[in-house]
Every structure is written in structure tokens, then in C-alpha cells.
UniProtKB/TrEMBL annotation:
Keyword Transmembrane among record annotations: yes
Gene3D superfamilies attached to this UniProt entry: Multidrug efflux transporter AcrB pore domain, Multidrug efflux transporter AcrB pore domain like, Multidrug efflux transporter AcrB TolC docking domain, DN and DC subdomains, Multidrug efflux transporter AcrB transmembrane domain
Keyword terms, alphabetized: Membrane, Transmembrane, Transmembrane helix
A single cellular component GO annotation: plasma membrane
InterPro entries: AcrB_DN_DC_subdom, Acrflvin-R
SUPFAM superfamilies: Multidrug efflux transporter AcrB pore domain, PN1, PN2, PC1 and PC2 subdomains, Multidrug efflux transporter AcrB TolC docking domain, DN and DC subdomains, Multidrug efflux transporter AcrB transmembrane domain
Protein name: Acriflavin resistance protein
Amino acid sequence: MRLGIAGCLTHAFIGSALTPLFLLAAFAVGLVALVTLPREEEPQISVPMVDIHVSAPGLRAEDAEKLVTEQLETIVKAIDGVEHVYSQTYDERVLVTARFLVGTSADAAVLRVHDRIRANLDRIPVGIVEPRIIGRGIDDVAIVTLTLSPKPETAASVSAADLTRIARELRGEIAKVDDVGLTYLVGETGDAIRIAPDPARLALYGVTLQQLSAKVTAANRSFPAGMVRDGGEGIQVVAGETLQSPAEIANLLLTARDGRPVYVRDVADVSFAQDTADLYVSTVRKAVGGSIERLPAVTLAVAKRAGANAVTVAHDVLARVDSLKGNLIPDSLTVEVTRDYGETANEKANELLFHLGLATLSIIALVWVAIGFREAVVVAVVIPVTILLTLFAAKVMGYTLNRVSLFALIFSIGILVDDAIVVIENIARHTAMRDGRSRREAAVDAVAEVGNPTIVATLTVVAALLPMLFVSGMMGPYMSPIPANASAAMIFSFFVAVIVTPWLMLKVAGNGPVHHHQGDGAGGALGRTYAAVARPILASKRRSLAFLLAVGVLTLGSLTLFYTKHVTVKLLPFDNKGELAVTIDLPEGSAVEATDAVAQAVAKVALDLPEVVSVQTHAGAAAPFNFNGLVRHSYLRAEPQLGDVQVNLTAKGERDRASHDIALDLRQRVMALTVPAGTSLKVVEPPPGPPVMATLLAEIYGPDADTRRWTAKKVEAAFREVPFIVDVDNSFGVPARRLRVTISTDDLDFFHVEESDVFDTLAILGGASTVGYSHRGGGRAAIPIVVERPKGEKVLDETALTTPIPANVLPGDRGVVELGDVVRVSEERASFPIFRHNGRFAEMVTAELAGTFEAPLYGMLAVQEALDRQDWTGLAKPAIALHGQPADESRSTLLWDGEWEVTWVTFRDMGAAFAIAILGIYILVVAQFGSFKLPLVILTPIPLTFIGILGGHWLFHAPFTATSMIGFIALAGIIVRNSILLVDFIRHAPREVIVTDEEGGSRVARRPLADILIEAGSIRFKPILLTALAAMIGAAVILTDPIFQGLAISLLFGLASSTLLTVLVIPAIYRLLRS
């Protein structure tokens, strides 16, 4: 017998002293990889987003778009690696966001943008300040958030400023921990000395705001005034001292009026203030007795460095916090861990490692029962060796230990043992023949017999998996550990099967007796069962044809489950997370107090849910962002009318409902709240995979702004008609009211008033002016001294217009006039925001899906039906685009984006990967068998997997997801592997047999084809069934995971149906095509 590559390897290593060394080396490098691989909950996808903020004072949105936005867009779009350019233009400000290709280095992205803009500053109009560039990436997402709040009994004595001071000191201590990255505070509110001017009192004493600011600034000076000498010694002179208290400022002399001094206290109220920041952050939880406690809070967010182990960093951070309790952190405060991705990553890793061990033990038990104890011992060594080698490969390839890479190992465990099972079963069969060969010779011959088809079969699985590495978009790198690790596992499994397995078989068997199972030469009991089923099917060509037609009809019937929507299509199902969020968008111009009131109402209904532990509310401040918030730019939600509510759930093991079910319940409760008109409330779940701006996103393009907005309103109305579309919103809203202050140049000239004095006065009346800092010493942070009216008094009414401003009424006579003498106040509406995507104007309508259908495809179809029913008189009905922005903007177009875009790209690329996989498998099989037609027979069973895959999804009421597609593609390689083993045995089966005639003589007779097919099926059915069961066991342990359930169903049910049908379909095709 020709040994081939596999036989030669077995012959070389079966008695070599290097084999045990190879085994020990594999264990060693694998264990090192297992210990050193960084642990994370999810794959870290690098999607750099660089924000360019530009202040455009005095420009309305339309002007800012022409003068600033378009210039920046053309500069940014030309940068290498930029995939999308988004811009938002408002009155007096512009935000341009450059989104780079997935995988681009975040640091490189920021540098490219910075360098290109610096090189083109001459294109920025005169009067526009230099852009502010801020880069955000996956490593800026906090893995730990700590919320500091006072205990209920000490709440009265702990202020927000106290919390901020302690949080700042804690941040400094946390920064000392190794591998800690970006840290920031949410809700920080420091002390300030506020000088609150009263316009009426200013007018009474004729004091201007410029006088007030200048006096405080001058009195607050402290500076080095040179050196003096004293007895030959140089002594430094420090002049002045900063003001220390409100009383010192209040007693400053401003001027004299009617012969009596006028002090600061006469025209302004001076005090310590903590409400200068326009935000409210609090933690809300249930108190003993069921009441609701609201306490002020400050949250410290801690990210990690790139490549660091999230588990280790989070553990070290929390250990550092524990060590500071009772010292830096007083007993009067509570530190709540409101996010710990290190713990969740460790939990998921340990859970999946347990599943990995469970699958391994199950496969060992399967081999023990089906083949024997010694063979099971060999499998018990082979599986860990292959897994450890795969972990080493993952380490070399730069992957981390996350849920996807661990799922790849669990998925692989069922197929990596295939080679070993085939080799073990064949060695056991050859050894049991008792034909005079030694155990070593029998082992070498057994490996040689199945060697070539095993090589081809292994390569077919790799060929099926490897093209998935080239899926583009965010789903590509998210799922890449599966094809990478599974392919590595298959390659390692082949070498372990032909090098280590025969050596172990000899060592384990020793000199013990040869196990001989009666009838094993014909496949034993399983073989006899197979023959009983196959014989009627292969009895004639007509029966074979009828069987094939029945299987074909069953396959087509399974595909109709898509059409009838008994099986739906979705990118990824919702995961079971430990947090939810509710975003609050009040109409622009709403006060932060109104936003906070809505946030508290949301917190109250959230706490009614039994699974909710605590809630953090943010009004006017952005909550710590996660990966979803990174893409959606939630870190920019620091405006008075915007709020976020963070909902923390109990651990998964302590609740009966998944987070998605809780989110559906919470949404119903939130929607029942009474909120101000125009308020938008959205329940946001952490996405199961790559995040998007919205699950259902319609981008509206058109010839002009009015057409786009009217079309968007019609689309929004269509969204609201669909019952399973929720959280509907648009991008333009209702422009806020604003006051336009017009300066009369004639009055300025008449009163000799400078425009700068008018502007400065208005800036203080409506805003604030920091005139200095009070340095308290002792290492404490300086307190700003701010001239600002209290928030409740910031009105531009008749009293405010009496505020004095400097005027030179007569030469040499410095006097004052009232502000109202030189300005006119009128009300107007702000401009609509202008959105552009890759240089094209667009309006957006966004929504989420909940209920009957939760995939964007079904929402899109329902919306398009609703649009067809609408009256489009006077407005052109928009064209529908599924992918790619319209080239013609002269007519209205609705482009579906959001999760649909990711779904489109993912399934398109996976389809292409599947086509490449089929082509690669075909070429491998042609090379193996030297035939162009036979590979088509071998590929025939692939569609049969749909019977089990779609039937399984229907049975479990599970959507067909991207992971389901991965399972289908992987099945192509696995099923073809079984087909190759069966066809190879058929081709090499003896065609002739010696028979004895009635006279006692013998002659050579040609065997019937049906007998050859049944014999081949009987002998190969056992190893084919064992390898299928091994893969099904690997799939079964991940069946309960919400994300990878689709992969598990595809493997479990697809293997079950296709394995049973393959061993019948291929012989039936042979029977039909061959004589």
C-alpha cells in the first residue's frame, strides 16, 4: 500500500523519540498562550472617529455650511483611510466627523486629520477660529465606571463639590494603576465664588459690568515683582494675594456715588455657588420601605490601554479603590461599581471554558461508548493538545480571549476531533483484522488508507472557513476569530491525528489483547442498520430517482420558511446584558431642570422593575459612553435639553428575564409617561455586535431642504403606522426660539459707546465671565471667580436692559447709558440643522424595532407599503435605494442605512465567501479524484443542510443570523468531508469477487454496484456518524447563548439532517448515473 503524505508522517513519528517531545512542547506553548492572552468581553474593533469642532460666531447655519463645512469636508475626504464624512451644521458652530476604515489605528487617524487641516488652514475663512480636533476610538470606552454618592444619612452634609473633589483625587490614584488609559469624570461640579450682578442696582449706582469685572481682576492679582537685595542676598518679591472669600470680594470699593462709597456688595450678591454648571447627575435607588432615594453623584470612568487585559486592569482598579476606602474615600460616601467589563469578560470566558471542557468530556464519552476505552484515552489527549496549539496560534495572530474567539474554539472542538476519530476508528478496524501484521504496521496502513482523503477533507473545511476572513465592514473583524481560529484548529488537528494519535494508540494499547468486534468489517450494528435502510433505496434506478426527488422537494420546502416568515432574517439577535439606557431629547431650548424632571420620572418607572438595582440620571451631561455610544456620538450629549438614564440590572443568574425582555417592558412603561410636547424617549440596548446609528435608519436625499424635510415627515408618518417600529425620531426637530439683539449704530455714535462694551455686557447678562481664581493653598484646587447671574434670573427683560454701559457723552466726561438705549431685541427662530453625509445633503428618520419583527428588513418592507398608501400629491414620491448614496440629487431618494447596511454588507460578503469556498472545495476535489463530474456529486449534499438548519430555526423560533450563515458555510466543508470519505471508499472498493459455483469450482464475478455502495456506506457510516456527533456535541453546549444560537442550530440540525441524507444521497446518485 502506498503510504502517501499522511502514511509517511505516521511511519516517521510512530516510533520516534521526538513525538513525546512534540507533545510536551504543544502543552507548554499552549498553556503559556492561555495564561498570557488578554481577556475581553467582545473583540476590540478599531473604528476611529475623529471629530472636528469649529466655532463660527455670527454665522447662520446656511452660511456656516458654505464657508466652513464644505471646506472641511473636502479636506477631510481626501485623507487616506477615511470611509465616511458626516457633518452637522448649526447656527454659529460646525461639527465634521471623519470615520475611518475598520482596523485603522486611532492614533494614526488623529494625526492624519490634524496634519491635513494644519496644512490647509488658509482655506478656513477669516474670522473663524482654528478647528478643535478630538479623536475617539475603542480604547476610549471605559471598562470600569465608579459612581460616588453620599450615604442617605450623610446626604445633607456632602455637597456635589465635595464629591467632585474626592472623585478628582481618586482619579489621580487610579491613574497610577498599570495599563489604565483614559479617565474622565461625569457630573463634576466644583465650588465657585459667584458675583451675581443686579441690573437694577447697577443702574442705581451707575456701575458698569466692565467696572465690576476690572476691579475684581485687579484686586485678585498675585505675581513675582522682581528681586531686592538685603545684605548681599537676593530676595524675590511677590506682590499681591488672591482673594480668599466672598466677603473679601464683597468689600471691594468700586466707586463713589453722591459722596458715599459704592462697594461690590452694593451692586451684586457674592457667595459660594455650586450651580454654575448647567447639569444634574444623580444616582437613584430604592430605599428600605420601598421609597425612592435620589442622591447627587459623580461618576469616574476608567478605560484601559490598547492590548491590555481588561480583566486584570479592572481587578487592579477595584482593588485600588478598596484600599482607599476609609482614607481618601470617607465612610460617608458610597462607591458603586456601575460598569465592570472586566468582571463580565471573566465570567463569559470562564463560562465558555467550562462549555469547552464539557464538550471535550462529552466527545471522550462518545468515543468510549462507540469505539473503546483506550481510544477514548487517546482522544482525551488529542483534543487538549489541539486546543492549546490553537490558542498559541491565536496569540501569534494577535487575537484576544473574548467571547467570539472562545466560541470559535467550542465550534472547532467538534470538527478538530474529526481527523483523530477517523484515524482512531480505522486503526482499531485494521488492528482487529488479525491478519498477521504487527500493531505498528496495522496503524501505518490504517493511516495511509484514509490519509489522502483526510488531507483533502481537512483542506475543504479550511477552504470553507478561510474566505470569511475577508468579510468587510465591522462584522468582518468582529467575527474573524471564528474562521482564523477554526482554520488553525483544523490544520493542527491533521498533524496531531497523523503524528501523535498513532503513537498514542500504540502506547495505550501496549501488549493488551486486540479488540475484535464481530461484524466490524461490515460496520457492525450501525452498518447493518444502514444496509437495511439503504437497500430498498438502491434496489433500482427508479427508487433512487424517487428518493432524490423527495429530498429535493423537502429542501425546496424548507426554503419556503423564509417566504412565509416562519424563519426571519436578522444580523444578530439581542444579547443578555447587565445594563440598559434611556435617552431623553427635549425640544431645543428646554431648560436643564425640565430635562432632569423627565429623567427622574424615567428613573422612577425603571425602579419599579424587579430586575433593576439602581439608576443613574444625567441631565445636561453625557453618561459614560460604551461602544454603541462611541458610534452614536453619545459623548456629545452635554446640552441642557439632552439627558441619559443608565439602568443597572441584577446579574444574569439572579433574574428570569433577559435584558431584551426587560427593555421591552421598560419601553412600554416609559411611553406611558406624561412628558413635555416634542420630547423623544428611546430605550437603548447594548448591541449584540457592531453598533449602528439606529436599527432602522432612513436617509432622505433631495433637491432642496424643504423637499427633504417634507419627504422626511411623510416617511416618519409611515414609520409610526407600523406597530413594531418604536422610538421614532428625526434629525431636524423644531428650531428653538432665540433673541436677536441688534445694535443701533446711530445710537452708538450719539452716545459714544464702543461695540465691544455692548458685547461684553450682553455676554455676562446671558452667560458668565471668569475674572480670576482664588488659590486656597494646601494643594487644593483653585476656585474660579465668576461674574454670572443665577440661572433663574437670566432673562433679557426691561430690567436687564437698564444695565449701564460705558459711554463718553461729552469729551472728557466718562459716563454711562442704559443698554436698552443702544440695542433692540427681537425674537426669531434658529436655523434648522444641516446634515451632510459624504458631501450630500440628507435628513434622517430613525427608529428601533420591537415586537413581531426585530430585523430591519421587515420594517423596511412595512414602511414601503405604508408609503405606497400615502397621498403624494404635490410632492414626488421618493425612490428607494438599498445601498449606496444616490448619484442624482435632483429627485427625492430614501436610502436605507443603519443595521440594514451592515446586514447587506455582511450577507453579501458571506455569500461571496461561500462562493469562493465552493470553488476552492471543487478544485481540491478535482485534484484528488482527477474528475470534473465527480466533485459535483460530492458537493450535492450541501443544499441538504437547509432542511435541518431552517427546520431547527423554526423549531427554536430563532432568526437566521450572521452566525447561522457562518454555520451553513462551515457545514459545507464538513459535509463535503464526509462525502469525500464515502466516495473514496466506493472508488477503492474491490469490483470483483471470487465465487464458488455449484460444482465446487471458483470463478471471478463482477460485484453488483448496489452491493459495493451498501458495503461502502456500512463501513464508513460509523466514522461519519461519530464525527457528526462530535461536531453536534460542540454545537449543543452553545445552544443557549443568544448571539451564537444561530451557529449552534445550524451545526446541530444541519449536521443531523445532512449526515443522515449524505450517506443515502451519494449512493443514490451513483446508482442513478452508473451502471
